[in-house]
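Moderator note: this is an archived Q&A kept for reference. The question asked for a predicted structure of one protein chain; the sequence and the answer are reproduced below.
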Amino acid sequence: MQNKLFPKFLTGKTGYLLGFAGCFAVVALALVIQTHYKLEPCPLCITQRMFFMGLGLLFLIAAFIKPATLLSKLLTVLQVATALGGAGWAIRHWYLQAHKAEIIADCGVGFDYMLENFPLKKMFTLIFKGTGDCAAIDWTFLGLTLPQMGLITFVIFGVYAIFLANMHLK
C-alpha cells in the first residue's frame, strides 16, 4: 500500500513544490555552512547556487502549469538542462580542487565586482576560469567536498524532474 501512496504524493503540484523547496533548501544549507564556518564562497560556488535557484524557480513554475501540455514538457527539458548545467559547473569546480597542485593563481576578483564591471560574456569567462580559492577544500562532509555534494544533488534533481514528468504521462 505504501508503494501506491509514495509516488502519488510525489506527483503533480506537490511534487514540483517539493522540488522547489528542495532546491532552495540546498541554497539555505550552503548559506548556513558559509556563515557557521566563516567561509567565503568562490565564483563557482555562487554560480552553482544560482543554478539551484533557477532550477527551484522552474519547479515552482511547473507546479502551476497544466500537466501533459507542451509547456510542461518544455519546463521538464529546462529543468533537466539546468540540472545538467549546474552539474557541469560542479564538475569544473571539483576538477579545480582535484588539480590544486597545478593551479598557481587565485580565483580572481569577486563575483560582485565582475557583475558590476564586466560584460556578461567576460564575467562568465572569468567565473569559468576560477582557480586558486576555487581549488581550496575548506569543508567536507562524509569525505565529500561541496562541489561533489553539489554534483550529486544536481543529478538527483535532474532525475527527479524526469520522474515527475513521467508521472504526469501515466
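Archived answer notes: The beta strands are 140-141, 144-145.
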